[in-house]
Amino acid sequence: MTKELEANTTISHYRIVTKIGAGGMGEVYEAHDSRLDREVAIKVLPADYTSDADRLKRFEQEAKATSALNHPNILTVFDIGEFENSPFIVSELLKGEELRGVLNEHSIPIRKVISYAQQIVSGLTAAHEKHIVHRDLKPENIFITTDERVKILDFGIAKLTEPKNTANSEDATRRALTDPGMVMGTVGYMSPEQVRGQVTDHRSDIFSFGLILYEMIRGEKAFQRETLAETMTAILKEEPDDLADTNPGLDPSLERIVRRCLEKKPEHRFQSTADLSFALDSLSAPRTSSGSNLTSAVLPLETEKVKSGILSRVPIILGGLALLALGLVAGFFAYGRLRPVTPPSYQQLTFRRGLVSHARFSPDGQTFIYSAAWNGQPLEIFSTRAGLNESQPLGLKDADLLDVSSSGELAVLVKRKFLGQMIYRGTLARVPMIGGTPREVAEDIQEADWSPDGKDLAVVRYVDGKNRLEYPVGKVLYETEGYISYPRISPKGDRIAFMDHSQLYDNRGTITAVDLSGNKVVFTDEFSGEEGLAWSPSGDEVWFTGSKTGESSRLYGASGPGKIREVLSTPADLWIHDVASDGRVLLTRFKQTTDITGSGAGDERERDLSTLDYGGVSDISRDGRSFVYTHWGEGSGADYSIYLCKTDGSPPVRLGEGAGEKISPDGKWVISFIPSSEQIVLLPTGAGEIRRLNKPSGLVITGRIGWFPDGKQLLFTAHESGHRDRAFAQDVNTGTVRPITPEGTTGALVSPDGRSFFCVDNDRASICSVDENSPPKPILGYDPSDLVGGWTADGRSLFVRPDEPTLKVFRLDIASGHKEPFKEIIPADMAGMFSHPSILLTPDGKGYIYSVRRYLMDLYLADGLK
């Protein structure tokens, strides 16, 4: 092929549309794939290059290297072929522009710089794990799509590095195309070892990445000089200007990351992109007060024992002997701190956007089974191994992994129903690890864990309003009116550790264990939030992840009552899933966010109203101008924080502590429920004093709290010990509490006239009268799976919606049961949603707020934690 391809030229089953670019490695065309009916890009090597054996080899290597990678931040290759003696590559068609174009047009905000950097490193990690080094990273090879997704292009001079100890493998037969002494790459983005023509490895890419990151921050190249020779000399011998010179407010941690990437000697840089990824993620994650490094655990326990042992033996003596002894102690203490310690290592196992629910080691210790919901799709169970970028689905869709037995049998949860927090109730089933049809064994199950021999299961079951821990199935060892999560049987099979939560469904709780006779031992005080638990290999400690007062979730070890230590602290949230017999750990690094979108009455368009990092919306004002937001994330405190936010996007105002409920009819008060004391408090929205209501004696509040229209009474769901939930009314002024429904009938949404309220009567949706003597009236046309968003202004209808990802709101007429569509909202991004989005509407339906709570998780294999 000697000339440019014209439109409508056919190559195999691809029809050329137009030429879109050209470069040293070939010409690029937009084409239509008639077989799969999609638009693609085709790179064709010109005919006059085919005589260049080296160029042909590099072109072929680009195809092989890129096709070996399947990652959202790397250009996807679909096909390879030959047309008129010229080879071609078919890849996904990208819409957007190269990073070079972005840099030429304008400066990049730091938050975008960090986002782009994280994505570049994520793609490089996938390549390096396949033993592929790019070796020509530069802004021209980084593409930014229209939806802000980064794609790494052109692995044309990538070098397939040889993994260690593979002399007898097929990989060992691969040969790099370039020899030591040959300079390849783009001069301004070369590493020192590339400039010298030395052998390169993945750390060369880290240097080139550092140059790109430097340029994104400063807007100019780090080592750009007038001539190529001067540029190469600068790379070898000079240091770039300080980033803070042009960015006074720059986070010092970001400059340190850049400096470490640009170390002249490879051994002084980040030694892996996994470590670099952790460091970058710390910039966008909430900060802790510990000052711990992302890739460093606390000192090993042995070091702490050495220090405490020395200090305990310092005798109290006089004069010079005392000074000598103290000097020796100080020397030993310093040695304990400064002696080399092998840091933990981390290997990323998943690379897609979404939520990881459970993860376990398989019996061989090398295969990892996990359940995840990727890119907004339903939960599914996958398997993967270290070094692979791809996970294989096991054919178990809409199922949650609970545990893997020592014989390779999975315990899974099917027919799941979301309850709250991360808790689902469903049917327990067993299925071989290789896949198959699940065999259902028990209903109303929330969690399960296999015994060490793989013969029995410990389960958490919901029975008569209580959570029960059973082991084996049917034998109750413990029960609570709160909920139980993450039951794990000890390696010896003599104890079961779990998280004990006193409130539904608030993940504050304690780490607790019971023996096989049901004797309970509480290991910790209450944490403000905790998710994830596993036994250490020896069974001497329970490892768990939690937050004491709203800071980032950390990894702890507890060996008995009050015996707790910090194992790993990072600026990112951590979630432990499993510990192998050799001490390796499966954990997720995750970020929690709440995306809030809304429109006040009369607004012409929706606004992004997201605030702080993570929380929940509990009410919208009648005029649609404000809403109540409870912050659960970093800095929220042990009892959370309540904010009053405006739908005009102005800054939120903190009202006080607690979990936010409803705004009073006159707009002057917001109900707060204090979790630690289980007390109801009224917070003023303007000037005024906090009002603390009398705590109802003997009552446990379990449901939402609402107002009567006159603002003089509250309605809430609660129960007395040993009794079922029912609805109660409390006088705001006197504090008097009275039941207004029989047991089994609950509710908190009062009608506009104050005479009735929406209630659930023994799992049946009804309308209850405030007069206790009137029986509930079932609601016609109401689907049991529907969620209620509130009353219409006339009190004749309810806003209801199905419990599904798409927000389809209906107006349900109570008298006739007629249901008519009212509003439909489809969230643009469903990745990471662990529950369906929620929506609140004003009584006239003109104002609304909807929110999406999101977990974005990456699964890691950690080695070396102690």
Task: Give an overview of the whole structure.
This protein is mostly beta strands and 866 residues long. 15% of the residues lie in helices and 40% in strands. Strands 17-18-19-20-21-22-23 form a 7-stranded antiparallel beta sheet, with no helix packed on it. Helix 3 (110-129) runs antiparallel to helix 5 (202-218) and helix 9 (301-312) runs antiparallel to helix 10 (319-338). The protein is globular and about 95 Å long. The model is unreliable at 157-184 and 285-340 (pLDDT under 50).
Q: What topology emerges from the helices and strands here?
A:
Elements: E1 10-11, E2 14-23, E3 26-33, E4 38-44, H1 53-67, E5 77-83, E6 86-92, E7 96-98, H2 99-105, H3 110-129, E8 132-133, E9 142-145, E10 150-152, E11 159-160, H4 192-195, H5 202-218, H6 228-237, H7 252-261, H8 273-284, H9 301-312, H10 319-338, E12 345-348, E13 354-361, E14 367-374, E15 380-385, E16 392-397, E17 400-404, E18 409-420, E19 423-432, E20 439-450, E21 457-463, E22 466-470, E23 476-480, E24 483-489, E25 495-501, E26 510-515, E27 520-522, E28 529-535, E29 542-547, E30 554-560, E31 563-568, E32 573-579, E33 585-599, E34 607-608, E35 615-620, E36 626-631, E37 641-646, E38 653-657, E39 659-663, E40 669-674, E41 679-684, E42 691-692, E43 699-707, E44 713-720, E45 726-731, E46 737-739, E47 745-750, E48 756-761, E49 764-769, E50 777-778, E51 786-791, E52 797-802, E53 807-813, E54 819-825, E55 838-841, E56 848-863
Antiparallel strand pairs: 1-2, 2-3, 3-4, 4-6, 5-6, 7-9, 8-11, 9-10, 12-56, 13-14, 14-15, 15-16, 17-18, 18-19, 19-20, 20-21, 21-22, 22-23, 24-25, 25-26, 26-27, 28-29, 29-30, 30-31, 32-33, 33-34, 33-56, 35-36, 36-37, 37-38, 39-40, 40-41, 41-42, 43-44, 44-45, 45-46, 47-48, 48-49, 49-50, 51-52, ...
Helix pairs in contact: 3-5, 3-8, 5-7, 9-10
